[in-house]
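#data-curation
PF: Archiving a pair of folding outputs for the training set. Convention for this channel: one message per protein, sequence first, structure tokens after, nothing in between. First:
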Amino acid sequence: MSLLTVEHLTIRFGGLVAVDDVSFTAEDGRITAIIGPNGAGKTTVFNCLTGFYKPDVGRMCLHRDGKDFLLERMDGFRIAGQAGVARTFQNIRLFPRMTVLENLLVAQHNTLHRASFHTLAGLLGLSRYRDAEKAAIARAAEWLERVGLRHLADDEAGSLPYGDQRRLEIARAMCTNPRLLCLDEPAAGLNPKESADLAALIRDIKAREKIAVLLIEHDMSVVMEISDHIVVLDHGAKIAEGNPAQIRVDPAVIAAYLGTDEEDAA
């Protein structure tokens, strides 16, 4: 069974159909890329999956631990906390004045809040809260090690180079222990070496965490290198899907990215 099943997803903004009857699946341990030209509806799909938008039509079902979570019926904070969907953003959204470590601890706020009995155990310094706090710090340290930022744990997040901030945002998402990780253009603005390092990190997450990864990306070298399955959107509609070799030679995909003779003449 697929971890995520999206069926007939449709969302309109006034007279504009941003996503038009899109269906696809995402499986555990696999990377599914959603690609397409600017304005194709890719980020709108992510915004539906994570609760920022409610679709006009469609079903988004995440299957986890024997339960079905209908994402279109859930509030955004429940999608993250209960269904286990985490995301990064095209524009980095770290807490720039907090330290690198603090950004990862904030991501574990819900776990710490429950352990504190809604702050009481924290105020009293009870062992339940101290143990949870130690576990949160250990998890944060583990992810900082995996993304190569442990030596910068006490630096302000906003002081990091751009590529390090990208990796920190992924580490923060992983600290929520997600089952579905949605990465919105994680290679945007990176140089070739940084893109290669990012691709290696995403492959490592896939191999070791056995979660589903949804990827929006314009860097086709990254997409073709790491994706198991690719869904192609154009003007809100799905025009193709398949493995990288199939997508690379698909006429509809080539036309969407390069244009047709008729479009060029117009």
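PF: Second:
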Amino acid sequence: MDKESQVIQLRKEKINALKEKGVNLYPNDFTPSSSIKALKKIIEETPDILGEKGEQFSMAGRMMAINKMGKSSFVRFKDGSDQLQVYLQKNRLGDEIYFLFKKLDIGDFIGVKGPLFQTRTGEWTLLAQEFRLLSKAVRPLPEKFHGIKDPEKRYRQRYLDLIMNEDSRQIFIKRSKIVSAMRRFFEEKGFMEVETPMMQPLPGGAEATPFKTWHNALGMELFLRIAPELYLKRLVVGGFEKVFEINRNFRNEGVSARHNPEFTMVEFYQAYADYEKLMDLTEEMFESIAKQISGSTKIEYQGDIIDFKRGWQRFSMIDSLTKIGGIDSSIISDTQLLLDFAKKNNIQITKKDRHGKILTKLFDILVEPKLIQPTFITGYPVEVSPLSRKNDVNPELTDRFELFIAGREIANGFSEINDPEDQNNRFLMQVRQRDEGNSEAHIMDSEYVEALEYGMPPTAGEGIGIDRLVMLLTDSPSIREVIFFPHMKNTV
């Protein structure tokens, strides 16, 4: 029997002994009057009301350290906000209660009540006048000194990670604040928050492989959404001119430091706006969130200082390929010369790929990793932009942008197609690509085209990856650090 199993066996023996004495190991009748965080604010602002004869407080939390000293003991416990020390004395609590305390372990939840006093070292401590067991833990917590170092264990047993690692707790506290700040920003700009279906009869709004499911009552196949885009634009058709959704998307693709098959995005749409207006709006939003979360427009991410101050770089895709990617401008419009260039540089591209797709693949390899500061790339080819409005000057390109920070895509936005005939033709082009073997190409959505035929105002829309934004603002190297329960391969 290993050490942990021995500890669990000893704890179970304690549990049985306490049950035989009639101790309720899991009561549900204790309500704390304050959190430790609130108590520390009182200590800071009105310490004169404290002391052994002062106000009493009832507190609850998990025991994290125990120092037993015969007839008195010190315990350090934590609630959801902070940690506090409590002092227990046998002569105050009585033999029965103190006996119960001596049978408890680190990890157990307790309730205590009493005044605050300062120890000889000046630490504010709760003097227990009352003591309760609130929940008995069977399994031991990891050793505090060693913590949980194995990332696999941290992700699979996130609850232990949150108990033992304050840095992990702070990441998720910050994540919550980032989402709240984003929601406030949109609401202050007059956007309405909405909800659209997560199970859809047709997967649409992006090029990706969907997850499939089956609805028994309807007798039909459904897909977990890969994006909410086509439903949000239906709402714009219906007259809601500024909408946003903080949404969960599902894409049946690989798992990596930047990808999780289930992820969070915000998508928003604004009537009578174009893609350039959304770039301005995005700069304003990111600058605002950075200031609220980090206290500055500058953050450090994996050794790079990134500045969210407005006035970000903007390049067309063609310019980025020549100025950053190192491709000679004389070959940029020649498909065969680009294929020769790719082969010479060991970049895998098939001859079946259309010109626009070749440009995009070269961009992914040669340019994207170099875009550390916030940078908008515009002018995406029509072939890779099935829902984006064609540019009036060059119809081979679209009024679309992607935002890159720290060498990765963070956002994608464009002026929307509101010409139903153009949208229908784009879908047909995607259908041809599916027939040619591109399983992620968009499916024909005739109902969406029908919605456009009722008329949609000029509109622009954008999707922002919230998980990746949280990675940036918490200096997290992997997306798994910012998702409570990332998907993991079965160990069995």
